[in-house]
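Weekly modeling sync, notes
Attendees: S.R. (lead), two postdocs, one rotation student

Agenda item 3: backlog of single-chain predictions. S.R. asked that every request posted to the team notebook include the full sequence so nobody has to chase files. The rotation student volunteered to paste the first one in as an example of the format we agreed on. Action items at the bottom.

Example entry:
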Amino acid sequence: MITGGNSGIGKATALEIAKRGGTVHLVCRNKERAEAAKEEIVKESNKEEIFVHILDMSRPKMILEFADKFQQENNKLDVLINNAGCMINQRELTADGLESNFATNTLGTYILTTALMPLLKKNEAARVITVSSGGMLVQKLNISDLQFKTGQFDGTMAYAQNKRQQVIMTEQWAKMHKEIHFSSMHPGWADTPAVRTSMPDFYEKMKNRLRTEGQGADTVVWLAISNVQSQHPSGLFFQGMAEQKVQLSLSEIVKEVAEQQDRQTVEAQDNNNLLRYLQAQLSKQEKEKQVVLKELRTIEKQIYQAEDESENEGQLCTDLESQIWSLIASNSKLKFIIQEEEEKYVKLLSGYDKYRKKILAHKEFIGQLESKNPIMMQLEEKMLMMQKLKAKKKELVADLQNPEGNIIKQVQGEITDLKAKLSEIKEAINEKSVLLIKEQERHAQLRKEIEVQNKRCEAILKRLYCQLNKVQSNKRHWTWDMQQMEKTAAHLRRCLGNAV
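Predicted structure, as returned to the notebook:
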């Protein structure tokens, strides 16, 4: 248990004990400051068992009530550290009519310690440490005016008298309670809130030589947890983890102050050397930090560039995939168009075959017509007849050369008849020739029409072959483009995977 544990040496002591695993009860007057100190101690020590108790050490009745309640709620107390204190420079009275310095420093410490004696005696190695001050060396015990009712009031001297009273109480407790080890101590002149507010002139003159709060707490922590300390007799006064006299002459006081100043000077020089070394190390680390930060910025820039490239490649891959899907859709559409064109081509080929068959049939029909035409047959008959007539003419010429006259007459009569028949035949031949010419013209026109139709069919076939070749060429080109795009997409996926 540490009284006044929310600031100064009390808080530094609580932190050091908590770091070593101790359970700490902070007895403080101000709740907000106590909770803030608890939070700081828990954070720095990683020790959760830090408890806060709110108590005004200048109120005797409240102290007795707190001690009674604490003993009911707890069955053990190893160490009591009486650290709470005050130095008020004007004489003030508490609500109970007591002088404030005496009520807090002497009476409050006495009541709390004696009230907790039963709980402390349950522990064989219990300790009570009272944080006094070297200022008590300038005061002798004065029990005739404990509350400074007579004479001119001096807060500093009142504080020194209270601290002398604490040392005397420690000595008396050690004689009365052998089961408990009692110690009082002087933390050295430390830079604490109490010194800054209560002794401003002293603080301004000595602030560069004052000890830190942690340094001021070293002796009280040693008294609280050290096994070596328990080997010293109970009731002693300590400073710098060593026993000190409680009565000093003025020369001894001056000598002690001089030695303390020398020690502080040496410590200051050591601290300055350490500070210069730390500053050099800090400068070196700052340079290394700048180099590391520069490298870090370069790496971050590279990371951002890689992320941008990755995003671009991802977008490109997405675009390529969309193009591939578009090409696949176009390919499917082209396949459908090719199938339709092939179907149309097959239909055209079948139509062309039908048309060619019709033309061949028409040619056969024309040939048959030409072979079966009656005019031609009649012409052939007439030709045969002409050949017969020529033969008869030759016979007649031979008969005419014969001197028999009857035959000539008969022949002449027959010739006359034949001439008449021949005229009829010529007329008929002329008529048939006209009809034949017309028929030939009609046949020639039919041949021309057949040739035109053949040319049209050939042109249609050529056009179809060209379209088919073009479709097949486009199909091969699209297939090659799709293969190239698939290769590009695969390469981009690999690059994207490597970038990620």
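Discussion: group reviewed the output briefly. The domain at 2-247 is CATH 3.40.50.720 (Rossmann fold).
Action items: rotation student to repeat for the remaining queue; S.R. to check formatting next week.
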